Every structure is written in structure tokens, then in C-alpha cells.
Amino acid sequence: MNNKLILLFIFLLIGTTSISAQNDTNSSKEIKNLISKKRSFNKDFGFGYRVQIFYGSETKARKLQSKFKINFPGVYTKLLYIAPEWKVQVGNYKTKLEADKAIIAFSEKFEGVIAIPLGK
């Protein structure tokens, strides 16, 4: 009885090891292929992201832009007017992940912070 249990355990161990090794190899190649395609796409078409910290009236937009410059010196800020509202956008980020990391830092001082993709 013990010999049968030992043999069964060995077969299960060998089976699961070979299956997981095959999955790691296949997914690794697929992941590398997807990453290279994404990098190629970003190089040709990637415009990046900005973080929008405000959307509304001109006076409040200018106040929040000044407050942002004090709290985060060295981060690029831009004031936009798209009728009838004003926007305060900050930073220049290559990827959404970078913009999302900045959102975490900015949301401590500002509410309603979102990532905005830059268009063509």
C-alpha cells in the first residue's frame, strides 16, 4: 500500500512540474512579444499623459495652479481654456502607470485628480 502511495505521489509531482514549466515558457515568450509590440507602438504613437487637477472657473483654476506650484515645485503646470471651462493640467508622463503614481502623490493635496491622455 505504501509503495502505491509513493508512486502516485511521484507521478503527481512529475506531472505538475512539467505542466508548470511548459506554462512559464509559453507565457514568457508571449509576454516578451507583447512588451516589444507595446514599446514599438509607444515609440511611434505614444504621446503620453498629463494629470488634471481642476476643471472649472478661471479664478479657482489660477488659485489651484499657484497652490500646486508651491506644493510640487519643479512639476510642469499648464492652464488651458476650453470654452466655457478652465483646466489645470500638470506633469508630462510617458505611460499611464507613471501618471497613476503621480495621482497618488497629488491626491493628498487635491481632489478629483485624473489622468488625461494626450492626443494626436
From TrEMBL:
The keyword Signal applies. It comes from the Bacteria. Pfam families: SPOR (PF05036). Keywords: Signal. Residues 1-21 form the signal peptide. Residues 48-107 form the SPOR domain. This is SPOR domain-containing protein. It comes from Polaribacter ponticola. The lineage of its organism: Bacteria, Pseudomonadati, Bacteroidota, Flavobacteriia, Flavobacteriales.
